[in-house]
Amino acid sequence: MREPVSIGLPAVPGPDLQELMGAVARGDSDAFAGVYDRVAGPVLGLVRSVLRDPAQAEEVTQEVLVEVWRRAAHFQPEKGSAMAWIMTMAHRRAVDRVRSAQAATDREEKAALLARTPAFDEVTEQVEARLEREQVRRCLRTLTERQRESVTLAYYRGLTYREVAELLALPLGTVKTRLRDGLIRMRDCLGVSA
Amino acid sequence: MTTVDLHTLTGAYAVHALGDDERDAFERHLAVCEPCAQEVRELAATASRLGLAVATTPSPALRERVLEQITTVRQEPPRVPRQGRGAGAVRSGRGLSRFVLAACLAAAVGFGGVAVWQHGEARDAQRRAEQAQDRSERLAEVLASGDARVISNELPGGATATVVVSLEQGRAAFLASDMPPPPEGKVYQLWFDHEGTMRPAGLMDPGARDTAMLMEGPLDGASGMGITVEPPGGSTEPTSEPVAAMPFGV
Ligand SMILES: [Zn+2]
């Protein structure tokens, strides 16, 4: 069974994110402040998980939020939620940064990634964020260990699937399949529709 | 990379795990494959949930910096969708219309259909299935090819015809939507145009209003294609005026 999608966290009173994005697209900077309050925490958390360097993470987060302002008119609500649009942008930016910075990361450092679990250990006050975290964790547990490994390395660490394959000594096709199957299982568990 | 492979890249694409070349190739595929595009939307939304789970609390200073910076940043205007659909309009990339997407679906059904065929008893049915499979794979390959050139044309009577040409693969695909049925007892025949000399390139299914087919035979330097109405089984050279002629512009 699919639960309704709740993706507008953290909970901040007032109009919802989609409405705010409409106003931002028309140049409303007050509405942008509202968008900031709803998305800055998730964006920073995600970017930091990929970059791991707090100063760089803040820098990229700032870039992402300014990009949200700049490109607000390109957001198409019929193609998905504003949160998904912004988080996708954030992930893309973080990944671009990590790949340009460490074009030649040595294998050892990558191997160290294996030992780390995603950064779920942040202290966040918002109840909604905590609930979201619990739900995602619960759903991650429904993946096979192999799927979980591939998904978290690619998403939280920003590795390409080739890097994941190399790291896990797996054929490329296997990693592709695991990424897709893992995300599909997450989608169904979280009840995401788009 | 075959198209079967391409369809499995949705997950890797949604988490930005493709290299640049593969990403570009897959984005071209997404432009013509609605099932993949839909799956990507869902998996990207799913991935963003993973991101929400690691939310943290930013410093008040960051908020100030961002809100200050946007006062100096000009916003981009909304993108105006391109309308150019005139005769021979060349389009590429995103925004291909419904019937191109239908073509991808047709190809996908083709793959899925093989299992059914393989349970068929007649040996020749199996052979036909293999040929169909081969054709639909090649069709999908042309649609997804890196150098695909898309020529679209509105035909008299409101039908839309599109040719996807891949020089790299030396093949062309033909797609049509809302084709009026051919005159009683006739078929539409496709032709490759070599400076006015027409080479047969296959027959449209007379019962189909929407079609997606691989044009028969290699491009071989053809400069365009044409469609004529012919007797059943087709002709070796056109016996009627073309209902459409589409230069490839290459
Ligand atoms: Zn596809």
UniProtKB/TrEMBL annotation, chain A:
GO molecular function, one term: DNA binding
SUPFAM superfamilies xref list: Sigma2 domain of RNA polymerase sigma factors, Sigma3 and sigma4 domains of RNA polymerase sigma factors
Name of a matching Pfam family: Sigma70_r2
Protein keywords: Sigma factor, Transcription, Transcription regulation
GO BP terms in the entry: DNA-templated transcription initiation
Domain annotation RNA polymerase sigma-70 region: ranges: 36-102
Residues in RNA polymerase sigma factor 70 region 4 type domain copies: 133-185
Cited NCBIfam families: PRK09646.1, sigma70-ECF
Annotated family: Belongs to the sigma-70 factor family. ECF subfamily.
Protein name: Sigma-70 family RNA polymerase sigma factor
UniProtKB/TrEMBL annotation, chain B:
Membrane topology: Single-pass membrane protein
PANTHER family linked to this entry: ANTI-SIGMA-K FACTOR RSKA
Short name of any one Pfam family annotated for the protein: RskA_N
Source species taxonomy: Bacteria, Bacillati, Actinomycetota, Actinomycetes, Kitasatosporales
Name of the protein this chain belongs to: Regulator of SigK
Domain named Anti-sigma-K factor RskA N-terminal: residues: 6-40
Signal sequence, renumbered to the chain: none
Xref: InterPro entries: Anti-sigma-K/W_factor (IPR051474), Anti_sigma_zinc_sf (IPR041916), RskA_C (IPR018764), RskA_N (IPR053877)
GO annotation, biological process: regulation of translation
This protein's record includes keyword Membrane: yes
Keyword DNA-binding part of the UniProt annotation: no
Residue ranges occupied by any Anti-sigma K factor RskA C-terminal domain in the UniProt entry: 101-243
Provenance organism: Streptomyces chumphonensis
Localization of this protein: Cell membrane; Membrane
Molecular function GO labels: sigma factor antagonist activity
Keywords: Cell membrane, Membrane, Transcription, Transcription regulation, Transmembrane, Transmembrane helix
